[in-house]
Amino acid sequence: MLIATLQAFIISKVEGVLSKMKYIQRGTVTFHKVNLALFAGGFSTFAIMWGTQPLLPEISKDFDVSPAVSSLTLSATTIALSIALLLAGSISEVLGRKSVMTVALFVSSILSILTAFTPNFHLLLLGRILQGITLAGLPAVAMAYLGEEIEARSLGMAMGLYISGNSIGGMAGRIISGILTDFFSWHIALLGVGLISLLASVIFLVFLPQSAHFKPKKFDIKQLTSSLFKQFKKRSLVYLFLIGGLSMASFVSLYNYIGFQLIDPPYSLSQTLVGFIFIVYIFGSVSSTWMGMLSDRYGRKKILQLSLLILLSGIFITLNTNLFIKILGIAIFTFGFFASHSIASGWVGKAATHDKAQASSLYLFFYYAGSSIGGTVSGIIYKSFDWAGVVTMIVGLTMITLFISILLGRITENNQEIKMKHIT
């Protein structure tokens, strides 16, 4: 009797350990918890990050600065974020995935509340820079967490759901900001976004499981720096970094300055209506999940290139002066962008052979550096050449991105051929 009880106890313990070591599969309770937590985390991060975007005309007017200068409330945030991402990914290799993401979410939410009370442009800019540094903790680590914990066949869907949280957070942040600004002020708008983000941070903390496959490393700055630069030795990763940076430069260029065009005649839309333009982000939420699943089935190369072509067709449609057709073009562009980002970011986790969080951080460094540079340069172009100039810039960037995706596809095909030769 005692032996049987002891055997049952040992078996239960072994099964418990093995269950923890299993990769999370689609359809399980744990899979749903991970998706809910990262959806909330992505929502919070991107609501805070992009919350000032629809407010740029108001900030420009309130502080008497040009559209390009007002866009620094986004560009400064994203450039600070891109630099901090390099550190956040490395820090998570030492301290763990969940702890770094949780601290990042709570601190950035509190900073968002504090920026609501800034009395001048310089303090607002400083607050946004600090937010960029703290926001880095989630995007730098989330992709690595998913790559480590989710089984390969379910990764495309999981990554797509995480990206959808990003897109819905970005959409909600813009809409909430627009409405609160119209009814109260942009100060109240930032306060509202901060409070909602704080609630999302609590959901993240409660539902995200601790890592089962993460192996902490000792803090060794020389080793961490060396492993960071080794990522550039893999051409497929370099191409993915460039794809992320160029596509994001296109994306932020469209959304930064479409508001200026729609507030001016002949459209003369209110701040609330301009905020609601961002509801087309829902197309990004759908595309990131759906196209991510299609990439699992038909291959990343084909679906990535298809996504970029969809993006390209959308930007051409925005040249139409009819408001409804213009919004349709924005929706198609958004669909293509989030699909390409979902596929490329998921691809990084699989292409990286070591230190996946660092590889993810480098992808996002290029991604947000593209946002910062593209957002500012397109402001100068908009001032000189109006909307047609911004569209021309985006078309050029997308054509380069398509060419890089073709080179990436060739490398992937060559690697597959080499593997097949080794097998045979």
Structural description of this entry:
The chain has 17 helices and no strands. With 424 residues, the chain is mostly helical. The radius of gyration is 22 Å and the shape is globular.
Q: Brief overview, please?
A:
The protein has 17 helices and no strands. The protein has 424 residues and is mainly alpha-helical. The relative contact order is 0.15.
Beginning-to-end CA distance, first to last residue = 54 Å
Taking all Cα atoms into account, the compactness measure Rg is 22 Å
Number of strands: 0
Report the major sheet.
none
Query: Which percent bin holds the helix content?
Result: over 70%
| General shape | globular
> For the residues shown, what is the average pLDDT?
80
Low-confidence stretches: 1-20, 417-424
Number of helices: 17
Q: Note the beta-strand portion.
A: under 5%
**Helical/strand content category:** mainly alpha
Order of helices and strands: HHHHHHHHHHHHHHHHH
Write the layout of secondary structure elements.
Elements: H1 2-21, H2 29-50, H3 56-62, H4 67-70, H5 72-95, H6 97-115, H7 121-135, H8 137-149, H9 152-183, H10 186-207, H11 221-230, H12 235-263, H13 271-277, H14 281-298, H15 300-317, H16 323-351, H17 356-423
